[in-house]
């Protein structure tokens, strides 16, 4: 490392027109998170930056991509704000994204700026207050961290004195799929790998392994440092015997910059951008194929566990012969690959005769007879079956008609099945004074029945009443008053799925998207995980029903909504972005379009939707 460089800065490698990636975070009190997010939105777009920015009352976390000159301008702008004093801006030049599918999944094809409740969610239990970030473990520079490891390994007499007092244990704060391709390996030093699927599982692991940590000098590390901040504070909150906690400042990224040969780090550093991983000068490979066990450490194929959707390593040979994967954690829990069947197509009737609670409601599907071939043409697969939930004051038939263009574009890969919501609504019209009468008249025609998944507390329905005059003009925020009816809708959907058959995914539009998210959250609470393989949430919003508990919904998700420039006048961009933020972020994709309150079917948006669905074929 350049000895003259100030802490928190990273030289741009002289690549003015080269592509680069910038990572930084800052824990600090943010007085107005919404205003800061708006600034990020405008400033980053002006520099043509892409990536993710999360702004919360406790600080900022950013991963951005763009031209090096633009990123350096961004660093200069943020450094002028006292809020970012002392921030470690980690900037590295790299190749341009070449795999658009990977870049899109990592959020590196567009800019996503969101306001969040907290930068990282450590505790999934909403009753547990997060630890005080001021209690985080002491920062060790890459050189100090290395020196401690050298001393314990017996290869150096130099070390940080306060660490040396106790037995040293190293704790990896990352997810298991990250540790499988790279980790610290130090002779004579115990390194603990929690083997967790997601960060919010770490507190439980710490609670279960307190005796391995008590009285030790604990050295923690992660990719860039942010996860160690909260995790080290959590360990120190346990009191006596847990005071000596230290964290690698700047994470593995800074360590590999300081020690290009890898030092004590073996393998590659998993990163959450289009690069996927970054290695050292060492040419060693830690990862192995899940199926055959051969050395392999490339996640670019984005293979995932069929049950929990965690990334798994599968070599190209095994990808050609196997389509269903079970990660090592699910295998430990006795789960097996899902059986793929080429069962015969069945015709879905448009009415159900059994008293299942949704008699006379409409169930309809688009053409279901086509099949999709395997990539090796050896056998055929059924299309993806997707349950579609309409918006407020719509019905299955209406939604099917409005999505006919979408169904046509997806006809070779998906079967869309539509169902009415359980809450029937009165016919409502906006009174208009007639030219010959002072009394406003309702429309003459009787429309098709309309339904809702969630309703306002004072909603009433009278089957004898044809029309009802609206009390007030249309209010785009009316969904905030729709707080009732979830329990009935949840039971209704459970019965419908049992009656119709299982689905690969769920798609919801507007209120249907809000209901789909609630349904998946409740399934996760009840069954441990949603029963769908994926979810698609279009122009959605977080329904004002219950509490999402702080734990992300563990479901691969695609969120499609307007880009915030006023095109969708019914659901604000920030509401749809907030819904996306409730899902597990490493398998969450966002498609922001420049159209209205619709599901877009033109390029490039339809191509992004197809790319997402192709993962599950």
From TrEMBL:
It comes from the Eukaryota. Residues 164-264 form the Rhodanese domain. InterPro entries: AB_hydrolase_fold (IPR029058), FSH-like_dom (IPR005645), Rhodanese-like_dom (IPR001763), Rhodanese-like_dom_sf (IPR036873), Rhodanese_C (IPR022111), TrhO (IPR020936), TRHO_N (IPR040503). SMART domains: RHOD (SM00450). This is Rhodanese domain-containing protein. It comes from Panicum virgatum (Blackwell switchgrass).
